[in-house]
Amino acid sequence: MIELFWVGGPLFMLPLMISSVLVVTVAIERHRRFRRASVDYEWFLTEIRGAIQSDGIPAGIEVAEQIPGPIAAAWSAGLRSHRYPLAVLREKMDSVSIAEVQRLEKYLPLVGVIAQVAPLIGILGTVWGMIGSFEGVAGGLSSGAGIDGELLAQGIGQALVTTASGLAVAIPATLLHHWLSHRVDRFIAELDRSRSDLVEILSARSPRKKTGKPVQDREASVA
Predict the structure, then answer these.
(1) Is the pTM of this model over 0.90?
(2) SS3 10
């Protein structure tokens, strides 16, 4: 491995090595982050609905705050805004959802850049190596000394090593980028579903006014 590093040249191999370390680090960190953020949505919905039906909105808030992740955070924000009109409730949930999605998308642009730039670095190393080879061939022919086989082999070797290294970094980075994007899309879909389910649960409990003021408790309105 060290020999290949020097064959490819530090100018090209060092950025590729740093990029590979970043890809592995991001993969490990995001896997742990997504695992902590994930929740069985059907189980979560059953728990929330049961708590609300048994002990009211405060019980639902307590359940949501005990569970980590973006889904529970969005539910907590929505339940805390249950006295307000649906437009305000959706706005509160959307605000939390956007912030949570931004946290989930952390490092996603970095991985995308590595996936695009790594093969370009490899191609640049290939071109650089071939230029060195042709310069050696041209110099030997012009001086009458013949083709310098060692210089030619070094140039071709650099070209092949940098190309392979660039692809070796770009392929895992591309796969990681697609995996991260897919996981984020799943969270977004669950957040959208959360808003609809929460509105359905709250609508089933009591009618809501369309004004911009908080809706008072039914008991207070009767009094």
Answers:
(1) no
(2) helix
How many domains is the chain built from?
1
- In this structure, are residues 160 and 125 in contact, taking their beta carbons and an 8 Å threshold? no
Report the greatest alpha carbon distance in the chain. 109
- Which residue range forms the structural domain that includes residue 44? 2-208
Give me the helix-helix angle, 86-104 and 10-37, nearest 10°. Answer: 140
DSSP string over 87-131: HHHHHHHHHHHHHHHHHHTTTHHHHHHHHHHHHHHHHHHHHHHHH
Task: Give, in degrees to the nearest 5, the angle at Cα 64 between 183 and 73.
Answer: 50
Q: CA separation (Å) from 171 to 2, 99, 130, 175?
A: 21, 30, 24, 6
- Torsion 91-97-100-106 (CA) sign: negative
214 part of a folded domain: no
pLDDT digits (tens, 9 = 90+) for 96-154: 999 999 999 999 999 999 999 999 999 988 888 787 776 666 555 555 555 556 666 77
